[in-house]
Design goal:
Elements: H1 2-21, H2 26-47, H3 63-94, H4 99-102
Helix pairs in contact: 1-2, 2-3
Amino acid sequence: MTQALLALALGTLFAVGTFLVLRRDVVRVVWGVAIVGQGANVYLVTMGGFEGAAPVSGGTTDPLVQALVLTAIVIGFGTTALALVLTYRVHEENGTIDLEELGGTGE
């Protein structure tokens, strides 16, 4: 039951992230990339072993995977914050964050 629930959660994270990446709004694209990154982190944790118990109490959860995912979460937070700040600057300069208006055809 736990594996089916985790598979459903992973599928939902990747589906929502992909949906947001395909939007025209830059902020939604940034959030979509962040959600896909979190889905990858959840996937790594589940593949590292999930016994349901804390490693201190004798479980076999791999601490290396948890350390790598924790590092990935911090880096992902930093890159998401940077992308949102850059999006804000694009809006200040151009007055829009619509990808089709920003990528004009030069006309």
